[in-house]
Amino acid sequence: MIRPILAAVAAFVLNAVLVLATDQVMGMLAPDLFSDPSNPSTAGMLIGLGYGTVFAVVAGYVAAMASGGAAQMAVRILAGLITAFAVVTYVQYSAILPAWYSIGLAVLGVTGVLLGGRIFESGQAG
């Protein structure tokens, strides 16, 4: 029971590191889109949701792979963590970020995680 939880937490941390590192790189490559966190641009938020979704797929795959045979449980726990993070983001940054961004974090994040888990399981079937 503990291994799927640890797998989900590790995948969540991996996802966060990938997103934060990419945010930093994007801030250097496109400072007009990513330089002011107190006034984020719509284009920057959309791009961030895009690469965040890709990283969620990776995180879902990693959670499933590291789960020790409990892939669906690990992926569901990770999806719950992603949803909780989106809610916290909405509550904490509602004065700065539009509601659609937090909704996008939840919907695209969970979709990406589930897709990553599905990709892992489809590779195990063969």
Structure characterization notes:
The chain has 126 residues and is mainly α. It has one domain. The chain contains 5 helices and no strands. The protein is elongated and about 45 Å long. The model has no long low-confidence stretch (mean pLDDT 94).
Instruction: Give the DSSP E fraction (strand runs of 2 or more residues).
Output: under 5%
Structural class of the secondary elements? mainly alpha
Q: Biggest β-sheet, characterized?
A: none
> Gyration radius, to the nearest Å?
15 Å
Annotation field: number of helices? 5
The geometry reads as: elongated
* Percent helix: over 70%
Low-confidence stretches: none
Q: Mean pLDDT, as a whole number?
A: 94
Gap between N and C termini: 26 Å
Number of domains: 1
Instruction: Sketch the topology as an H/E string, one letter per element.
Output: HHHHH
For the secondary structure, the number of strands is 0
Topology:
Elements: H1 2-29, H2 31-34, H3 42-65, H4 71-93, H5 99-125
Helix pairs in contact: 1-3, 1-4, 3-4, 3-5, 4-5
State the gist of this model.
The chain has 126 residues and is mainly α. It contains 5 helices and no strands.
Spell out the key features of this protein.
mainly alpha; 5 helices; single chain; 84% helix; 126 residues
